[in-house]
Amino acid sequence: MRSVEAVIDSLPLSSGEVPRQCIINAVDPVRFIDEILNKDGSNDIMYSNELKNDLFLIKNALLKEQRQDQENKEKAIWKLWEQLKIEEYKAKAIISRCDQNGFAFASPFHILVKEETGAFRLYKKERFSIQSYF
């Protein structure tokens, strides 16, 4: 999944009022945006329509990114089962390691790599030289 900052940077925001760093640093950016939007109209807080539109745009882009990431993980789980007969709970652990490091050893003879697009690709290790692992 792309970073929150990359998602925000890719959007055509118009208000210039978006609290970028707060959203980027939030534990759950989507929930944080919901909290901001829920404050609109309460305690004399009024946000401009441009800001509200920008926040909805960011929220929808983040939700889309999360769905895409989940779909990629489900495809990878299926691929690990289909090709290597790895059980789901083990596949999830392998994918989690791959998410953190960019790669994970799925078996003694296979490596799972996370591409820049967020998709996972399974390679046989014989395609790589031994030195490339160290």
Q: Counting H and I runs of at least 4 residues, what is the number of helices?
A: 5
Shape: elongated
Low-confidence stretches: none
Largest sheet: 3 strands, antiparallel
Radius of gyration: 20 Å
Q: Would you list the SSEs in sequence order as H and E?
A: HHHHHEEE
Number of domains: 1
Instruction: State the share of residues found in helices, binned by percent.
Output: 40-55%
Overall pLDDT, averaged? 86
Strand order of the largest sheet: 1-2-3
Percent of residues in β-strands? 5-15%
Give the helix/strand class: mainly alpha
Count of strand segments: 3
Question: Distance between termini?
Answer: 26 Å
How would you concisely characterize the structure shown here?
The chain is mostly helical and 134 residues long. It contains five helices and three strands; from the N terminus they run αααααβββ.
